[in-house]
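User: tokens in, sequence out, please.
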């Protein structure tokens, strides 16, 4: 696997050992939580204590929810696009960056000339609450020095190269000019990482791939296996599930359209590094956004947070 191996602190002698007989059990109050074994050694929180705590992950979700009640619908300068004068322009080692793309659906969304900065464009689904909730959890659960607010990036300029990790949603709607496709290709092949989420079924997949064929025409898509390194950078995630959107609360249905099965997929560069992590037939953004809703199952929310954290650590170390 190309790139640098993750760096980890030394073992913590005070770490509470879990009896073999108890491993693999789930708590009756939280079917999946972050009180599970991190991969290959001890990870630490920002406060210097052990990452694995005797609290269920639901506690962290509750903290995120309380904070998000204040932050959820605030904006960074200029709708999150930011500039040198933005109040959110804080120096940090990690910036949560969301891709604002041109949408083939723009003419049907009544946005007129409002362009990519429009609130109802497909790139901004769950924005900014999902982004803020994830950042709160990341600060709570890791030592990553991340900016507390999100950054919106576009393919209009080389500014995107300042943000090596980007998140995009509803990518069945994206379209690229030749210049934009070329810039995204260069971004990925020079070390950038893209996570795509919230698109469902056969038609969405074909529309997504129409864009990816412009960007990486010769790169195959593969199904990720449970043993792949990206699922073991911080948490060992061997058993995954379909992570549904909020529709699960009132329908009990985990899928949308004809996306009945979750697809954990990826595109790699020629050195084997994952450059595009694909969450097809899932909606992790909704799981982050509604993690503070008691009606949305904690099982799905905690899995979504763990996957996101694994993807961030992978992207930052490869």
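Assistant: Sequence out:
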């Amino acid at each position: 696997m190309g790139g640098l191996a993750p760096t980890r602190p030394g073992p913590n002698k005070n770490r509470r050992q879990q009896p073999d007989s108890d491993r693999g059990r789930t708590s009756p109050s939280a079917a999946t939580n972050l009180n599970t074994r991190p991969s290959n050694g001890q990870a630490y929180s920002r406060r210097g204590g052990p990452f694995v705590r005797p609290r269920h992950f639901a506690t962290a979700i509750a903290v995120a929810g309380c904070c998000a009640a204040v932050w959820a619908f605030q904006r960074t300068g200029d709708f999150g696009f930011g500039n040198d004068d933005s109040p959110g322009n804080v120096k940090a080692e990690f910036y949560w960056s969301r891709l604002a793309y041109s949408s083939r659906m723009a003419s049907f969304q009544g946005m007129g000339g409002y362009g990519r900065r429009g609130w109802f464009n497909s790139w901004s689904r769950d924005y900014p609450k999902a982004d803020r909730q994830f950042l709160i959890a990341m600060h709570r659960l890791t030592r990553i020095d991340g900016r507390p607010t999100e950054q919106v990036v576009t393919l209009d300029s080389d500014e995107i190269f300042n943000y090596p990790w980007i998140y995009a949603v509803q990518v069945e709607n994206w379209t690229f000019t030749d210049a934009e496709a070329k810039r995204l290709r260069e971004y990925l092949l020079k070390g950038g990482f893209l996570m795509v989420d919230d698109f469902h079924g056969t038609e969405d997949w074909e529309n997504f791939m129409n864009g990816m064929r412009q960007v990486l025409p010769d790169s195959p898509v593969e199904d990720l296996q449970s043993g792949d390194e990206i699922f073991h950078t911080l948490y060992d995630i061997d058993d995954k599930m379909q992570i549904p959107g909020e529709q699960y609360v009132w329908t009990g249905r985990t899928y949308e359209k004809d996306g009945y099965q979750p697809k954990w997929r990826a595109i790699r560069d020629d050195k084997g590094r994952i450059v595009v992590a694909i969450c097809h037939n899932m909606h992790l953004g909704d799981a982050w956004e509604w993690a503070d809703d008691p009606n949305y199952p904690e099982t799905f929310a905690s899995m979504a947070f763990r996957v996101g954290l694994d993807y961030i650590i992978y992207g930052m170390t490869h």
